[in-house]
Amino acid sequence: KIINFKPNDMTVDSIWSFLSHKFKNFSGLTIAVVGAGNIGFKIALKLVESGCNVNLYRRDEIKGMQYVNCINTVKHKNTIADAKFFNDPIKASTLCHAIIGTGKTNSLLISRPMVSVMLENGVLIDCGKGNISEDAVKVALDTGVKIFRTDVSSGIISFVNEASEIKNIINN
Fold first, then answer.
1. At what angle do helices 7-23 and 153-171 cross, to 10 degrees?
2. Are 95 and 120 contacting, i.e. CB atoms less than 8 angstroms apart?
3. Does pLDDT of 117 surpass 80?
4. Per-residue exposure over 76-106, b if at least 16 CB sit within 10 Å of its own CB, e if not
5. Spatial distance between the Cα atoms of 28 and 167, rounded to a whole number of angstroms
């Protein structure tokens, strides 16, 4: 059997589901998305649409500003939350409830100073395998910031179940 799927979207859905469970309510939250490419853009859009303010950082300032403008343009007109672009990852992380690193493997996007300025009991999410520096891990452990790695296992199970159910509906 062949089932078409988009791995990046599964990753985005897994992050969103995790954050939804962790925080229960996105209203009033601020989350930094660092290394915003395809996955970072998609999770930022989904979070803003859910009522979460997003601070976006990527090295390419022009693309970063385009992403933020796009998110704020396509979100529903009654959505109070918005996306903001920062050209400094420390400023993007300041007073955030969570920081999501969405870079390439071993990019070390999340640093010690970024963790130092986020809210206590916050959450770090490594989406790109090796996006959190060793010093950042130490600060997180010292300050009660929890560290998680993206896991798409539950998303794969529900995706396969959904694909099977849709196939049944179409065929019957």
1. 110
2. no
3. yes
4. eeeeebebbbbeebbebbbebbbbbbbbeee
5. 39
Dump pLDDT digits (tens) for 23-80: 999 999 999 999 988 999 999 999 999 999 999 999 999 999 999 999 999 999 999 9
Contact, 136 vs 111, CB < 8 A? yes
Question: Minimal CA–CA distance to 94: which of 117, 115, 124, 121?
Answer: 117
What b/e readout covers 55-70, taking b as 16+ CB neighbours within 10 angstroms? bbbbeeeeebeebbee
Q: How far apart are the first and last CA of the chain?
A: 18
Buried b (16+ CB within 10 A) or exposed e, 29-41: bbbbbbbbbebbb
CB 132 within 8 A of CB 156: no
**CA separation for the pair 79, 95 (Å, rounded):** 21
